[in-house]
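Supplementary Text 2. Reproducibility record for the structural model of the 384-residue chain.

All settings were left at their defaults, and a single model was retained for analysis rather than an ensemble. We include the record here because the model underlies the residue-level annotations in Supplementary Table 4.
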Amino acid sequence: MSNDVVIIGGGSSGLMARALLRGKSITIERGGEVGRKLLLTGGGRCNLTHMGSPGELEKAFFEKKNFVRSALYSFPPDKIRDFFRKIGVDTYSDESGRVYPKTGGAVKVRDALLNEKGRIYLDSRCTSLEKRGDVFLIGTEKGTIESKYVIVASGGCSFPATGSDGSFFKILSSIGHDIIPRRPALSPIHLSDNRFGKLSGISISAVLSKGKIREEGELLFTRNGLSGPVAENFSRNLEGKDSFTLSFTDDPDSLTLDGNALVKNTLSIPGRLAEVLFPSLCGKKTSELGKKEKNAIRTTLSGMHLEGSSTWNGAMSSRGGVDVKEIDPKSMESKIVKGLYILGDALDVDAKCGGYSLTFAFSSAYLAAKDIFSKEWPEDSFLL
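Retained model, structure tokens:
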């Protein structure tokens, strides 16, 4: 039996766990290279964390903020930045708090993690996982590995071409874990109404809502629907083809619609958008509008009902995965199978765009590595 910890998956959380375990691990990666999804983050720039206190960051994790709290407090953004500085990646934060490498982007981050010790088996898919007594039997296409500890960093379902296709959930289910159904998160929204396709490229501040759920921010129209931060953050709430509301103002009464200007020049929205929403009214002067027409404009701008769906094509994250009720939030160890640790996107944890998901990937890896160190190598000082 190997004394090494077996890490299943060579993505962001797997590479961080490997780095923190300092040569005491074997990483099993199904693809021909590690960190493929990491290379896509931030458009290749790699938004690796977000500045702020753990209490501020946890709000970005929706209903899972209590679960991620221990991870964020144990390995917060300043410690993440300090860790990367130690392995050769200097960082900076922009005006919004997003943290990026000063040079080299995602490639430099991936390569710096890759330079840390630990064996990696590429093109080696994990086919089974079983525990006999205190030992795990990890079946791979190249043979069976035995280990006391297993870290699952297999990812969720977004970007399947990178290996993050959700296939490992079947194995986790077979050993007793409940899997919350997966659906896209941080995804564009595909609209059933094709009127908006001609608005591709237009950006505007907007509010998307569904019942009590509300997201406000920058909206970008695309050929197929909606994108931009507000659409991506809201997309997790859509279940199949779903109804929601798009608003451009919270105060419809502020639209006086008085005077003698053209309607499309009076509204606080781009002219092209006004022409799509009010094709029969834009050429009129506001003085020519009747009360019914004015009310129709106010109603549309303050709450237009649309139908759309989130899509795996372009989703940067996924909602669903291993039920966090079955995971110890202070260590990321399974409550179902001792010695098994589950990290990052493999859990039913997702967050808003802005480097939060990578923050949790790194901080959950920190908790797992630290817990294993305390059990297996108590005489060694942990890296951080």
